[in-house]
Fold this protein.
Amino acid sequence: MSLAMPTLIVSPSSLAARRAPAPTAAPSAHLRAVGGCGLSTGSGCPCARPCAEVDQNAPLMRDGEGVRFRRGEVLWRQGEPASALISVCTGAVKLTRRWPDGREMILDLVFRGQLMGEAAAVPGAVHATTAVALSAGRAVRVEELALRRMLREQPALSTTLLGLAVARQAAFTRRLDELNHGAVESRLARVLLRVGDEVGLKDSRGVFVPVHLSRGDLADLVGCRVETTIRIMTRWQREGVVETQREGLVLRDRAALEAAGQEQVEEAAV
């Protein structure tokens, strides 16, 4: 499988007046503001328990407003003008891309403390992906004009956004590697391990991933049919490797997942 890397797209009219985003059927076109969730002048974070990235994110989000989203809500669509930088406070968001042949794949997952929508810093830029909430959550959003004003006033903040853009490109590259190397079982094992490393919580059962990933989401993450992920996950659950729950997923046997991923990669390389 050979896929083109998504790139930042800038329209020829970037110096002209920006057109308003086309209306969509999803209510997500306008995230709902959260009353009393404005940024404070202290930590710059509205959360009762600030994330580990608060020192990095707060300067960028100082003029932002608190918003909330529902599970399944579309925060933006591929090809729409990039109009805001968003910092996820709670919940999770998937970034998907639809290819010309109709296939849709998940290119990245955004969790608590992570930023997305960095293209809003560039006049005329449009989103290379569609952002869909995997769970209900809250975020802080700073509109494009306010973001650009901050960047002019504090040029050092551009370094943070540049680092974010580089990290996003690296994530896309990693995803393409995952989609192109190894059998489906290997790719699925590596994806589950990576997500567990990013947001997993260790407990007596193993590693709990507090994100509901449907079988369709897993299929989009590894580039296969839904039926294939159902078959693999059912077998792993029967063998005690994973345990699916309504609120997330438990990785019970990390060693088995590591062996599945490594074994399949070695076979593909022979």
Observations:
- The chain is about 35% helix and 20% strand.
